[in-house]
Write a structure and sequence with these properties.
This protein is of the alpha/beta class and 355 residues long. It folds into 2 domains: 198 residues, Rossmann fold, CATH 3.40.50; 74 residues. 38% of the residues lie in helices and 14% in strands. The chain contains 12 helices and 9 strands. The protein has a 9-stranded mixed beta sheet with strand order 1-9-8-7-6-4-5-3-2, sandwiched between helices. It is globular and about 55 Å long. The two termini are 36 Å apart. About 10% of the residues have low confidence. The structure holds 2-acetamido-2-deoxy-beta-D-glucopyranose. The site of 2-acetamido-2-deoxy-beta-D-glucopyranose has 5 residues, from helix 4. Keywords: Membrane, Transmembrane, Transmembrane helix. InterPro entries: AB_hydrolase_fold (IPR029058).
């Protein structure tokens, strides 16, 4: 979601430096990535602690078998939305980032008129459903998650929902992004998860330490955010020292293409995607290779679009476009690109919670 985030301090020139990496180095990097994928693919070797995700996103079109068919309930003062596939094998609780809500994870439908299906968020859910995870999302009580206010409520809701749907035998996993990542890292002290995923968040280990029996933790982040990058390194070391399984997935920037937006945002058509790409070129928002020069939030693309197409009907996709731009710049955004790594992490740590 367009995590209208706190602190967007980019070290000056960081992006330019990145783009100046010579081609040879890029090939070398690609080789390393392929090797890492190869080694990772060989199975459950947990000593592989890191994989880099510099996906060129060559095929942006993502096909999942699952469809958005949520059940929506308002309870304990918040939105609770879920979808359970046939024969679920595990539970996945998802926590959004600041300024976001549970309705971002499912497409708009008669069952959920207020859902908006942001591109990355919906793909996380659809992929999880494909892999037979029963998915549950809750909205935070305030703009961001609060440990004091939300932990008791969310714990209560998850436990109620598991009982209500007779899922007691299944391992329970959790994924949180940004504020939701800090929240999930704290929730994991109060609840038993088989494993967790913290996205663009380093966790609250500074204040709570590493609790005994803490679940295996995968950190999915965008190393361009040097601050979080540094904290994750430190926290991974602390977790590792206590014998807890950890892994890191690093998500890198990728160039925009004329079809990127129409391929990743259902409902946004090709002509509009191409028009916007050309506008970005005209305005100099992207370089000659298609890389954004700045974070989506710091690019005045909405203004430029308004000037060019004052009567555009496509404004319903502004938040969706914003999310993809932030994703391409790879500084701080929800991402579904590493969803395979995340689900594989959950699947390979399912033994630990079933008594
Ligand atoms: C949530 O709502 C239920 C039913 O209204 C209530 O029994 C329960 O105590 C509430 N839980 C919390 C943590 O407030």
């Amino acid at each position: 979601m367009p995590l209208r985030a706190h602190k967007l301090k980019m070290p000056p020139g960081a992006a330019q430096r990145f783009q100046a990496i010579p081609l040879a180095l890029l090939f070398l990097l690609l080789g390393v990535v392929i090797l890492a994928i190869f080694i990772n693919g060989r199975g459950s070797n947990e000593s592989i602690a890191q994989s880099d995700l510099s996906k060129s996103v060559s095929n942006h079109l993502v096909v999942t078998a699952a469809r958005s068919q949520p059940t929506v309930r308002f309870m304990n003062g918040t939105d609770v939305i879920w979808q359970i596939p046939e024969f679920p094998k595990a539970v996945l609780f998802i926590a959004h980032g600041c300024n976001c809500r549970a309705g971002n994870f499912w497409d708009q439908s008669a069952a959920c008129p207020h859902c908006i299906g942001l591109p990355e968020d919906r793909l996380i859910v659809l992929n999880a459903l494909d892999r037979k995870f029963a998915v549950l999302a809750v909205s935070s009580s305030g703009r961001c998650w609060s440990k004091e206010k939300d932990i008791a409520i969310v714990k209560w809701i998850i436990e109620w929902w598991i009982q209500e749907n007779k899922l007691e035998k299944l391992p329970v996993t959790a994924l949180g992004a940004s504020s939701g990542g800090y929240f999930v890292s704290a929730l994991a002290k109060e609840m038993r998860f088989s494993s967790i995923a913290l996205m663009i968040a380093s966790g609250v280990f500074d204040s709570m330490g590493v609790p005994v029996g803490y679940p295996p933790t995968i950190f999915v982040h965008m190393p361009k955010d040097l601050h979080i990058n540094r904290l994750i390194k430190k926290n991974m070391e602390a977790l590792r020292k206590k014998g807890i399984d950890v892994k890191e997935v690093r998500c890198m920037e990728f160039p925009l293409t004329p079809a990127l937006l129409s391929e990743r945002i259902p409902g946004l058509d090709q002509a509009f995607s191409l028009m916007l790409f050309k506008l970005f070129q005209e305005k100099g928002f992207i370089d000659e290779k298609g890389y954004l020069k700045n974070d989506g939030r710091a690019t005045s693309w909405k203004q430029a679009l308004k000037e060019k197409e004052p009567s555009s009907e496509k404004y319903e996709w502004l938040d969706h476009i914003q999310e993809e731009l932030n994703l391409a710049f790879a500084y701080h955004e929800m991402t579904s690109l590493p969803i395979d790594d995340i689900l594989h992490w959950f699947e390979s740590h399912m033994g630990s919670s079933t008594v």
